[in-house]
Amino acid sequence: DLGQQQMFPLSHEVVGPILEQISSSDDSRILATRINENFQRLVRENFPSKGTSEYTINFGKLIESVLERLQKGEELTRLAALRWVVLIHDASKSELTESIVGDSLFISIVSTLHSASDDVLRESVSTLVEVAGESKFGDFIRSLLLQVSSNAAAMLVKLPSIVLQLQLSYQGSNLEHPEMLFMKIAEILPSHGDKRFICKVVNSLHMMMLTLKEMLPLRTLLRRGIS
Q1: Rounded distance between C-alpha atoms, residue 135 and residue 145, angstroms
Q2: Interval 136-165: pLDDT, tens
Q3: How far apart are alpha carbons 111 and 158 in whole angstroms?
Q4: Cβ–Cβ under 8 Å, residues 100 and 141
Q5: Is residue 164 a contact partner of residue 208, using CB atoms and an 8 Å limit?
Q6: What confidence score (pLDDT) does residue 119 get?
Q7: What is the 3-state secondary structure (H, E, C) of the chain?
Q8: pTM, whole model, 2 decimals?
C-alpha cells in the first residue's frame, strides 16, 4: 500500500517512458508491455469508475503525458496510449473536468488520424466514441469535421474509414439508430465556410451510402422515410 501511495502521484512520469519502450525493437518491449498492463490493472482496481479512492493521481498531467506519446509514438505505443485514454476517462469520472475530456482531447486524437495505420485508426475511433458518449457526441463530430477540413489533403482519404467505424458504433447493436451519425454531420456541415470542402464530404458520404453493405440499414430507413 505504501508503494502504491508513493507511485500513483508519479503516474505521469512513469507511464510515458513505459509507453515509449513498448515500441522498442528489442526484448525490453515485452517487459514494458507487462509493466504497462500491470500498472493499468492497479489503476483500474484502485480508481473505480464509481466510488472514491484512497489514492491520488494527477489525471491532468497523466493525460498530457499519454497524449504526447500518442502524437509522437510508433504504432504499438499509440495503441497502448489510446487504451490509457479510455482508462483515464473511466477512472477520473468522479473528478472529470473539461481539461481532461473536452475539445482539446478530441482534437489531439483526431489530429493523429491522417498518419494512423488501420489498427490505430480503428482504436482511435473506438476511443473517441467511448470518451464522447452521448453528451459529447455533437462536440466530437464538430471537432472531427474541423480537423478534416484543416488537413483535407490527407484526411479526406481517411474519411470513409473513419465514418464507417463511427457508423458501426452509433447505429446501435440492434440497428435502431442508423441515421444518427449522418443527421449530425448534416446538421454541422453547412456551417463550414468552404463550399468546396462541403461538396467533397457530401460526395464521399453519398458514395459510401450507395455502395457499402454496412450502410444497408440506413438505405432501408431512407427508402421508407424517417418519421
Answers
A1: 18
A2: 888 889 889 988 998 888 899 999 999 999
A3: 12
A4: no
A5: yes
A6: 93
A7: CHHHHHHHHHHHHHHHHHHHHHCCCCCHHHHHHHHHHHHHHHHHHHCCCCCCCCCCCCHHHHHHHHHHHHHHCCHHHHHHHHHHHHHHHHHCHHHCCCCCCCHHHHHHHHCCHHHCCHHHHHHHHHHHHHHHCCCCHHHHHHHHHHHHHHCHHHHHHHHHHHHHHHHHHHCCCCCCCCCHHHHHHHHHHHHCCCHHHHHHHHHHHHHHHHHCHHHHHHHHHHHHCCC
A8: 0.85
Tell me how far apart the alpha carbons of residues 125 and 131 are, in angstroms, rounded to a whole number.
Answer: 10
C-alpha cell recorded at residue 204? 464521399
- Predicted confidence band at 7 (pLDDT cuts at 50, 70, 90)? confident
pLDDT of residue 227: 54
Whole-number Cα distances in Å, 135 to 102, 130, 190, 217? 11, 11, 22, 24
pLDDT tier for residue 2 given thresholds of 50, 70 and 90: very low
**Residue 34 and residue 22 in contact, taking contact as beta carbons nearer than 8 Å:** no
Q: How far apart are CA 66 and CA 79, in angstroms?
A: 11
Tens of pLDDT, residues 174-215: 778 889 999 999 999 998 888 999 999 999 999 999 999 999
Cell of 196: 468546396
Q: Report the C-alpha gap between 209 and 163 in whole angstroms.
A: 11
181/120 Cα distance (integer angstroms): 21
